[in-house]
Amino acid sequence: MRPLTEDETKAAFEKLTKYIGANLKFLVDRPDEPYVFRLHRERVYYLSEALMRKATNIGKDELISMGTCIGKFTHSRKFRLHITCLDYLSQYAKYKVWLKPSGEQTFVYGNHVLKAHLGRITEGTPQYAGVVVYSMSDVPLGFGVAAKSTAECRSLDPTAIVVFHQADVGEYLREESELI
């Protein structure tokens, strides 16, 4: 467990900024207690300083996880967000997409969001912006990248892709061995 380097911090913050924008400052400067980002086994964790101090008493070979896993670095050193950070993304998301009940299951199975499944979309969402996907009852289901802007979505045919799938809550079942 160690602090992130400059390049690692930049890569992680750029990816988070794609989804939560300027609200990243609320993750870094929390009013309740100080929180930090730490790297352990190529995974970036977000945890309180108190928990971090307690985790230092455990050897690095015995330490499996701590705090919330935000994402991991691939072998090519690119940063990839995990579904475990959905709670923080949904809290501070800039752009949101709501799915009709008929489209929730297909998204949770790992498929892209089609126009036919789109319930609502945040006004002014640009193309290729990071979006958080919700059910119509405001339950966060996952996140992805907007394939089309809000204006373009109005004139699409029902089979056109609106959001490219990145991660969904179904990954807890499909990839449970890789999440730790």
Name a few traits of the molecule:
alpha+beta, 5-stranded antiparallel β-sheet, 6-stranded mixed β-sheet, 180 residues, 28% helix, 30% strand, 7 helices
Into which percent range does the helicity of residues fall?
25-40%
Strand content: 25-35%
| Count of DSSP strands | 11
- Please count the helical segments: 7
Rg calculated over all Cα atoms? 17 Å
Tell me the strand order in the biggest sheet: 7-11-10-9-6-8
Structural category: alpha+beta
Q: End-to-end span in angstroms?
A: 15 Å
Largest sheet: 6 strands, mixed
Mean pLDDT: 91
- Secondary-structure element order, N to C: EHHEEHEEHEHEEEEHEH
- Overall, the morphology is elongated
Low-confidence stretches: none
Task: Provide a brief overview of the structure.
The chain has helices at residues 6-20, 24-28, 49-55, 86-92, 101-108, 150-153, 171-174, and strands at residues 2-3, 35-40, 43-48, 68-73, 79-81, 96-99, 113-114, 118-121, 130-135, 140-146, 161-168.
